[in-house]
């Protein structure tokens, strides 16, 4: 017998409708690429999103057509999130930090019909325009006055002109909630970029779960600044969450340096922001230099890469900002786990609490997870045994878009389909998952695994270390041994011996890195993650060469 409740479809357009009706005068503030600050409301955004949908309909855009964006976090990008998905087409956010060949590959693979872009990315558009034959027009996200002259692109349109042609009387269509809404490619650090195609339903369920108190805990009293780009897994869902709960949104545009971010956080009285650890390095560095403190910030979401314990300490104990350590993937929309404390952790000392929060956290309702060993058997949740992390749930990928490999990304395990994340993790009795490594980054020393993240965490607490990455270097006897690659803080005179001695008593002795190499910079990928494969190419033979020398 079926229940007798309404079967209203879960649609992305309902989020902006709700925000308009219940939080119509709540602000959306954006630092524009034109340089100024733009301010309007959810009501304005809803009106303009309908104009986008109407204008695209006039251009002949059909349901399920892919519409690309190459854009920073800003109000026009938000209008596309709602306008494109709302009309039944698919908004395809492209990461402009990828190499131009990858951008062209992704746009062609997605078969984008139109590509919207911020003026910053005009040079990139010029490089790819001739290679993207399916694209009917490139639309510069600016007004008539700022349109580039003689850009050399045949089919170039102006966003504001296009919008003027759209009607605000447009009515959102009733779509099937399982229809695709959004397309996002993985950043390619794990092979060729692969398309993850979210649906209206998966996006809405993710939004509900992510907003919960033990998740990101968002409300109408929050002012949210997503530093995480809207081209990186929908800015972790924050543009949707803000509409669901009616929080004010602040978009930083292209200005992601510590000084610009701090200015915006203070002027707009931001309470919650989100980004990868590398962004926070810049912000914390700025605060240290200037001696300033936050006046309104209460929480910061840190994810995409492990949050170093030293960063947790600085945010929480020095600046009074609670850290929400989040783990996720493009394939998970992206949120899987969040490190919110349980009641029993509250009595702990700050150092003990930071150790708990250094873990990637508990699964949000909707995500099932488990760890399995090489024999395929499920491993215990004892906080010590590590294995391959597998997940499943209504916002976890089932297959990649136009998957050419003939091979499902899912694994059959104990009669059910699971997504193998490629991460290696432990899970403790409280259900806190801790990533010890990505499976391909694990250091296998004499048949035992050494977790690189732990070793990086220790190095990062040294006052002279600015950045540290630990990689597997080939070793004649042990196959692989840990090698630490370090960027020293400016003017710091740290030696290899001092840093290695710093490990004493902090980890098992045999985990101590075999050597340290000091470098000026550590290579980062398009989503701010350390490119360990690049470091392995560069330093993988370091120990062998040293042994011979
Ligand atoms: P890609 O796999 O292409 O880099 P994602 O941006 O989706 O794309 O990255 C997901 C991966 O990032 C995870 O599988 C994990 O290895 C890493 N990751 C994400 N959040 C964290 C975190 N809090 N701690 C450690 N690693 C993380």
TrEMBL record:
PROSITE patterns: AMP_BINDING. Keywords: Fatty acid metabolism, Ligase, Lipid metabolism. Residues 17-401 form the AMP-dependent synthetase/ligase domain. InterPro entries: AMP-bd_C, AMP-bd_C_sf, AMP-binding_CS, AMP-dep_synth/lig_dom, ANL_N_sf. The keyword Nuclease does not apply. GO terms for biological process: fatty acid metabolic process. Pfam families: AMP-binding, AMP-binding_C. Gene3D superfamilies: 3.30.300.30, N-terminal domain of ligase-like. GO terms for molecular function: ligase activity. Belongs to the ATP-dependent AMP-binding enzyme family. This is Long-chain fatty acid--CoA ligase. It comes from Pseudomonas silesiensis.
